[in-house]
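On clarity, I found the account of how folds are encoded harder to follow than it need be. What matters is that the chain and its backbone geometry are given together, residue for residue. I therefore recommend that a typical entry be quoted early in the introduction. An entry of this sort, consisting of the sequence and the corresponding backbone structure tokens, reads as follows:
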Amino acid sequence: MSLKNLRKEAVQLVEKILSDRDIDDINYTLTEPTNSEFGELTSNIAFLLAQRLRSKPYLIAKDLVESLSIQLKKQRTKGSLLKTIEAHHSGHINFRAAWDVFPKAVISEIVDSSYGKFDFGGGRRVIIEHTSVNPNKALHVGHLRNMIIGDVLYRILSAVNYDTSVLYYVDDSGLQVADIVVGFLYAGFPIEPPDPKTKFDQYCGNEVYVKINEMYTKNLDLQQKRRSVLKSIEKGSSDLSKFAKDISLRVLRDQLKTCWSLKVRYDLLNFESDIVASKLWEKMFEVLKNKGITVHEDEGKNRGCWVIRGSDGDDDKVLIRSDGTLTYIAKDIPYAAWKLGLFSDPFLYYAFSEQWDTSILWADTLDKSVGSTPKRRFGGAEIVINLMDSRQSRLQTIISSTLSAIADYHQERYMHLSYEPVTLSSRTAKSLGIDIGNTSAHMSGRKGIYVGADQVMETVYKKAKEEIQSRHQDMSDSELSDISESLGRSAVRYNLIKQDLERPIVFDLEESLSLDGDSGPYLQYAFARSQRLLEKGELIHLSFNHTELLHDKEVNLIRELSKMDLIIEQCSLQMNPKLVARYAHNLAVAFNLFYEQVPILKETKESLVSARLLLVKAFNIVMRLVLNYLGIDPLNRM
């Protein structure tokens, strides 16, 4: 927490000077400067005061620095981390650390056994819903982005003391499941894949779902079957609805295998069929009617439907179709209310499966013969995070505003964490036999335009195995397989988490699976280097001479190490896991430069060897934590 403590000292000084001058309501910042030559922190306060004081920012900065420096001398103690404060001619105020104490404060804190135990959440309950792929197809790479963002966010929030639960919503009563059922029962598709090596979820998505949608355009009878199947599934308690449930569960289990192969875990499966059968919708529907939030349309294009009216007729959102079936937003609203605890919990729960980390994945049920009430609580969170791409923004806004209209709660409690979808590059599409011209295209399961997640993972595992095999011909088959899987997993996870959420990703199979440069394996390589150094060297605990760590690459590494808790706190406040990915890369770059340009074990001065090894130890501890946040294995050998 050394940089955080340094910042705290700077804030106290600034606040004291502002108070002495009766200046308030200034939302200044204290951030890391773009160039480390300007110190550890910089502030924009002079720019904010320029208009108010009708003076130039530099003159204001000079005046403030005079007072700040006097105050610093008065209160500077032996252990103070702040040394000097300077006014830059641009108008920024720069704060420099006391490098006679700062390195020791950073390193000593990190190698302490309690390091990494942060409490930014205060035990608040958080629900994250992510992945939630319709149970009629296998995951594609667009789903991977959703899943990995959600998983990294879960790992970070859990690590900083949020009581976090991860939900996977299973839409087992929607149109997509009806499509698969129609394909099997009325269009002649065999239930078992013709190729026994094909996963069931791949078969349903790649063959049945795509082809049945093509058949609808030519066969009106099949369209009618689709409507009748959907009604039967929603009503439940029929042989057809049981068949649909069995198909959904079979697809779901294959989907989970893909998720678990990337070390993603969940706490609870919520089945849409159980939500419908629980009567949560009926309760919600009565509330919506009584408050006038939903109305019945007697004319126009939505005649016979129950709708939530928008600002004009084109913005109306249908909740109940004229044939009596529910739209998916009608099912999402009561589900959201349950997540927030606006309704009492109608569900029982049962252990659905053990996951890759031996934790139990629970599932809801209304069946008393199989379900019970577990000790842990699932619904009723203080904060609900729904991870969905930007195309769902309008629907999420409707849900949030609807909930705020029926209950007294802050809309900030129900959060849509939006990200831009993944598009497919023309080169990758062509390699898969898909013609989209010379542009990129949004992935579509219905149109068959996508790259399957399993295909991506198989490709990157193979590529990683070839590369490791070329370097370590003596490696055993089991170790080769384990390391290849770890490298492939890290390449995919890091590539999809390092991007800005608000920027779409054009997925190119060749570029996206690189094992070099700004990649997950690059982070693992830096960690493995540190591990080898520590195995070869001997540490002289905390009696090191930190004043000897003066090389610019040592200084840069110490600076990066000092930022870790601030980055994690910022990430948990902004719900932006990319911040951790970028920090991991900066940290790996700083260490690799230190490793390559500074002698460590070859250094002849014993005290300097010890100091540098302890710096390596500090990096090793921080990097292990950061890799765990990202869901990347810290490898000892590559």
About this structure: The chain has a mean pLDDT of 89.
